[in-house]
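User: Good morning. I'm curious how DP6 would be positioned relative to this chain. Could you predict the structure with it bound?
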Amino acid sequence: TIYTASVTAPVNIATLKYWGKRDTKLNLPTNSSISVTLSQDDLRTLTSAATAPEFERDTLWLNGEPHSIDNERTQNCLRDLRQLRKELESKDTSLPTLSQWKLHIVSENNFPTAAGLASSAAGFAALVSAIAKLYQLPQSTSEISRIARKGSGSACRSLFGGYVAWEMGTAEDGHDSMAVQIADSSDWPQMKACVLVVSDIKKDVSSTQGMQLTVATSELFKERIEHVVPKRFEVMRKAIVEKDFASFAKETMMDSNSFHATCLDSFPPIFYMNDTSKHIISWCHSINQFYGETIVAYTFDAGPNAVLYYLAENELKLFAFIYKLFGSVPGWDKKFTVGQLEAFN
Ligand code: DP6
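Assistant: Good morning! Here's the predicted structure, ligand included:
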């Protein structure tokens, strides 16, 4: 017999950034973070896992290509999942011994990996939840998110839809460092996100390397994790619960700027945004000023692409500007014309 399970996991984009680890093996962060999970229909990873007694070794296929499964992060996830399954089997000896069999895993993104969009988050979230489903693990989503965290920190947040917090925790073994849902997407369904793809060139400093350089060299980073983020976490959580877009937008933009400032304060400095990214920042402030109210927020991860958050009721107001400004942005490559501008819910 072959046992199989399939799941999808969506991309999440942080509005309060995770940047810095206190434990690099377990991906334990130096601060709590908050994100919005994008809709399943738009950016997601689909993963299927199969297991059978006759499988000879663990295998992984990513986007149609065989991929090494020997990396430490994937191995940590598989070990934890097998351990939980083993506990289940020892409690109920009538269960098939799936924990002892090899796994075949196939994973596919519905968006280009090269676009610099958080593919590792959706990837590890889907990998871990597919196997958890295959093993019929009774653990809660937050408990499973702890395992996804070991694959990639930001992956723990993709286990939930809607508005998600990753609570940093304080324990050395990381048992209290996991994701919890702040609000469901249906609690604030007017929220929309759109991705402005500025460049699809792969970033030269990975998040993993970049954040460790910041931890090691930036003085500004200490201020960020000790004072700025703890305060912002509470303000942003409240803004989400109360559906206060102006406050949510302000904290989101300020946190993106704070994170990129610590990158610049690293030594040698790390530049993730380019001139086009900076133009987008200026537009967003001009748009908000023009309307006399906050209708758009920008945020940038470890790359030059912008994610804009806005309320559905303001979509036309925002896109009127985006369409108009497109032609006049220096550095905006022709391939990113309005026709290819991707809007996601
Ligand atoms: C800027 O989760 O990719 O997107 O834990 O080393 O895999 P690892 O890092 P990763 O870092 C994401 C950084 C970020 C901010 C965020 O998503 O919170």
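The CA atoms of residues 232 and 251 lie 7 Å apart. Helices lie at 72-91, 119-134, 141-151, 207-217, 219-241, 245-264, 275-291, 315-326.
Let me know if you'd like a different ligand tried.
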